[in-house]
Every structure is written in C-alpha cells, then in structure tokens.
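User: I'm putting together notes for a lab meeting next week and I want to include a structural view of one of the chains we've been expressing. I don't have a solved structure, so I'd like a prediction I can at least talk through. The sequence is below, exactly as it appears in our construct file.
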Amino acid sequence: AKGDVDLLQFEAKAGQVFWMEVGAQRLGNGADPYLTLDQVTVNEKGEETLKRITAVDDDGTNLLPNVFDTLTDDPIYKFTVPADGNYRIALRDRYAASRGSASLIWRLTVRTEMPDFRLVAVPIIPTPPPQKQAGTWSLGLRRGDNAALNVLALRRDGYTGPIDVSVEGLPPGVTCKDISIGTTPSAGTLVFTSAEDAPAWAGTIRIVGKAKVEDPAKAAALAGAVAAIKPVTDAVAAAEKAIAKPADDLKKETDALNAAKAELAAKTDDEGLKKKVADAEAKVVTATQAHQAALAAKAAADQKLAEANAAVEQAKAANQAAIKEVVRFARTGTIVWSGQPNVPGDARVSQSLELSVIEEPAPFQLVTTVHREVANHSRQILVPVKLIKRPGFDANVNVQFVGQPQNVQIENKPINKDKPDEVYRIFVPNNAPAGTYTLYLAGQAQVSYRRNPQKVDKLKAELDEADKVAAAAAEVVKTATTKRDEAVKAVPVAQEVLKKATEAKAAADKALVDAQSAEKAAAEAVKTAGDNADAKAAAEKKLVETQAAVKTATDAVPVAEKARVDADAAVKAAEQAKVTAEAELKQADDKSKAAAAEKAAADKRHKDADNAAKPQNINFLPPTTPIVLTIKPSPYTLTAAPADGGNVKQGGKNEVKVEVKRQNGFAGPVTLTLPLPPGVVGVKAEPVTIPADQSAGTLVVEAAADAPEAQLLNMVVRAVSQFDGEAAVDQPVALKVVK
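Assistant: Thanks for the context. Below is the predicted structure for the 739-residue chain, given as structure tokens.
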C-alpha cells in the first residue's frame, strides 16, 4: 500500500557486527527499497527517542560498468553496534508516497558477519581498448589462439582477501593460467590458450575460486593485538630515552664524587672537603636511585613489549587456526540484449559456461611467459612479447596494456611486421596503490579473414556428391525410359501375335468341324454303297481319309489353343511390363527431380557460404596471457648518479654513486645489482652490499672491449634486500656505451 513502512527492532551488544542486506531489484521486481537504522531509547515514562544511525539507499558497487553492471537499488550496510541497546530498522519503498502494490516485495536479511564471495564469469566481446560493449558472446578458440574471460568477485560481508581463480575441465590442447583477484578492482581476466594442433572440441568447463577466509572475531583480535604494539613500542622508546638523563646525571655525580675524594685525599683534615664528599655521595645515591628507577621503567616497558609481542603471536596463531578455505564455482554472466559501445546492458546469470575449439587457425598470436610478479614500489618489470604469425598475415600489430593499476607507468607500442618480438616496460611508482591486479596486453591488427571456410569446403563436397547423385538419377531415368519405350512397343507386337493365334484357333476349330462333317458323310456313303464292291471300296477309302483328316484337325485344335493361350499370356505380360516400366520410369523421374532439386539447393548453400566466406578485412584483437601483479610497499628509495653523464667507454668502467634512504621500519643491508634487459650485452657490474649502518655505495659498471656502441635501454640499478620476503627496488639510470 502507499506509504507502507516495515519495521524490525532487535537488541544488540556493543561491538557486535551485523550485515543488513535487502533483496528487491535482484529478485526481479520494481521495488526501490530505502533502509534507515535508529537507536531506540525509552525513558522512565515509556517515551521513545530515536537516534539516527544511518540511512542507506542503493549499492553502487559496479565491477564491470557498461558490460555487466552489478550496481543495484538494493541497500547493503555493515553495522557495528556502538552500545548495548535496542535498534530499529525501517524499510520503505523510495516512491511509497506515490505508489503501492503487492508486487513490490523485498527480503531483508540481518546476519552476523560471515565474510564470503561469489564469482561471475563474463565472456568478452573483443573491442579496441578502452572501449567496452555489452553483448551476448561465446567463449571460442581457434587453433593457436588466446581468448579473454572477465571474472568478477562479488564480495560479501567485507571480505577483502585475495581470491585465486583457476579452470577445471579443459580439453586437450587448451590451457588457462590461474589468476588472483585483489580487493580493488574486485575483478580479473582469465585468458584461454589453444595449441596450434588443438583438436576441435565443445563442452562445459568450470571456473573455480578459492580463498582463505579469516574468522572476523579472530581477525579483529589480531588487529587489536597488533595495534597495541605501537603504544607499547613508543613506551619502550620513551623509557629508553628516559634512561639517558639519569645515566648522564649519575655519571656526572659519580665524577664529582671522585673529584671530591681526590681533593680530600690531598687534604684529609679539611672539614669542608669532607662535607663536599658527603654531599657528593648523597647526590650519587639519589642519581643511582633515579637511574635504577629509569632502568626499572625500561625493564617494565620491555616486559610489556614482550607480553604484547607474545599476545600478537598468540593472536596470529588463533587467527591462523580459524582460517578456512572457501571454494566457490562461478556462475556465467550473460547479456539479455546486445547493446551499443559504452552503454549498459541488461545483465543476468546462467548455470554453465561452454567452451569451443574450432580447427580454423588464428591469424596471429601474442605470447609472453611473464605470469606472476611481486613488485615493491619503484620497481621495473620488463615483459617480452613474441608475435607468432600464421600464413597469410604480415602486418604491424598494435599492442597496449589493459587493466594496469592506477599510476602504474606502462609502455604501449606496436610490434612492427619486420620484428618477431618486442619488450614492454612496466614501472611501479611509489604512489601506485598496493594490492593484487590482473593485466594483459591486447593486440590489434587488420586481418584478411574468411568466415568459416571449412563450411564452404564441406558444402562443396556436399554439392559434388549431390551432382553425382543427380547425374546417376538422370542416367536411371534414361535407362527406364528406354525400357518403357521397349515395353510400349512390345504390347502391339504381342497383340498381333494373339490376333493371329486366335484366328488360327478359329481356323483349326472350323477345320475340325469340316473334317468331322466329311467323316460323317463318308460313313453314310459306306452305308449306302451296299453290295457294290467298287462303290463300297471307294466309300471306305474316303472314310479312312476323312478319319485321318479328323484326327489331324483334332490334334491341331489344342496346338492352336495353346498358341492362343501363350499369345494371350504374352500380351498380358507385355502390358504388365509396360505398366511396370512406366512405374519405374515415374519413380526414377521423381528421384531425378528430387536429386536435381537437392543439387540446386546444395549449389545455393555453397554459393551463399562462399559469398559469406569471401575475404574481408576485420579487426583481430587477441590478448596475451594474464600478468598477475602484486604491489607492496618498498623498504627504501634510491638515487643513482653515474659519472660522465652515464658514458661507459668500450673496455672501460663507470662508477655509479647510489644512495639508499630506508623507510617503513627497514634497517637492514642492501645489495646493489645491475640487471641486464633483453638485448643488452657486453656490460656487467659486480654486486655491491651497503651495510645496515651505511646509506651509500658505488656500483662499478664495466663495458667489454667489443660491447656494441649504443644507448642502453631500460637500464636500472636494482637494490635487493629481505623485507617481508625478498624486496627489490629499482632506480632508472641512463647508460651509454661509447668508443
């Protein structure tokens, strides 16, 4: 309803830590929650008084702006309870005065502090840096390729530690170097690399994040113990300083006593000197007491420092024992609708991340072996990058850093087509924020690209096969047509034979009837011949002849009938053969037409694919593998002054005066070195150690007699020491080899 306000009141103790989180926009509805927190006090009359603690609106944390926005209208607040008492949360819609609906729901969570994190992996549309574009994209690799994937760490309840990210389930021929995500920015970039012979593959992979999470109470106890060291250390220093005057006073009074005793020894009866000695002895006693009191105070301060250090070690042990490893698997971030460059997209998450590898080779690949670097302030890092060109590519490649920390100095430059590699410089100045970062170098070049030529080859093979099938089908039609024509011609021939056989059968039947009539007449003639021997003999002869004719005619009838039946069967067979041939011809013709249609479709598919695969100049933007850079404070700063303007004669020497200014509590020795960048030869300097009680040294640079004449690029004097592990600090120095 309009004006609706939800209230939650709870009791809490001083020092307790709670996180308050509202879910509304992230639940998919249009609510815009607004949270206020008040301390509630009640007087003896039962009257409430509210003291505003905070008012919280949107969470503006946005880890990947304009690509996968993570800012939300939902409030999140860390509440450290200032005092025992009652506290009240009021939750309302930002626009409750003008709207109200049952659909505007939210979920309020109030929990004790439980540091944690979640990961979101977001495939990147390749764009020229610093341009970014929200859009749907897949994680795909050609052979000999690199592909980047953003990984965002959504931290919960104030977790600020590093998160190590790696990949599981990669196919043969594909690798992905692990990275570490620091606090700011809470994001990094994984880069997948395929070998030049990587087999084609498609499947699901898994991004894994691991972190060692402290128990908040144990971490707070450790922080308190560490914080307690400083006042105790200051007290020790003050006690140490406080010893100096009593010690000086004691020495002064002791010297005065000895002098007075010497005077008295010369004049043993001098009462004035005796008093002077007595007074001096009293002063020595007083000074001794003051000195002993100062020593006792120093001992007490030392004891407190030892106890404080022991408390720190105990707190460290307790904190270490409470640390737990948290493992989280990344969800995949996607964009609902592809957008315009530098315009926010509508983001969402999905369950799985798919990777594909295709057989097509990448035009070129940028390769570096630099992976993890720990650098103190004032440190130079040189990054060699190799350019691997594939057949058909021969152009300059623009290369620039992406993701470098604030204030870190980087060097962007192309790799010209006549060079196989280049060296890129990173310098970490003193004002670079300490932390862990992931950066990489992005290449950019125009390449002549054929889109999916394998599809063209495949469709050409399908077209050739369709052509063969169509030709074979046409040949079958031709054969079937010939067979049909022959069958059509055979029918009238068989019908003519049947006609003749039918006529012959009729003739045979007539001849039999005629023969039988003649036989009957001959038999009558025999009867009527009587006793006339000649007539009777002639009649009997005629009867024999007619009987033979009847037999012949009788025998001819079945023969003629059989011929007629055979001819009739032949007609039927010819007619059936005609029907069969016509059916076979129709079937063959249908198949031929289908084959011709498939050939035409295959031809169109091939032409469409061939047109789509015609070479076009496109931007190819591959990254190098990531560089995980951890920046730490330096234990000292350097100045370096070479003699003679830095000129080193061939076969000669140059003395470089180096001064060290220690800081951050460092008081140890420092070793000076001269690391040689790639490509620099014929120059050396033996290491020189500056003792802990000194601040200057001389590094002697020697050039061989055959050292090439040149201005030496990227030269630094490097000072190495032990300070929270090995520390290295660089000071750029201009050196030139001359005749």
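A couple of points you could mention at the meeting. Residues 491 and 574 are 5 Å apart (CA to CA). The first strand starts at residue 5 and ends at 12.

User: Perfect, that's what I needed.
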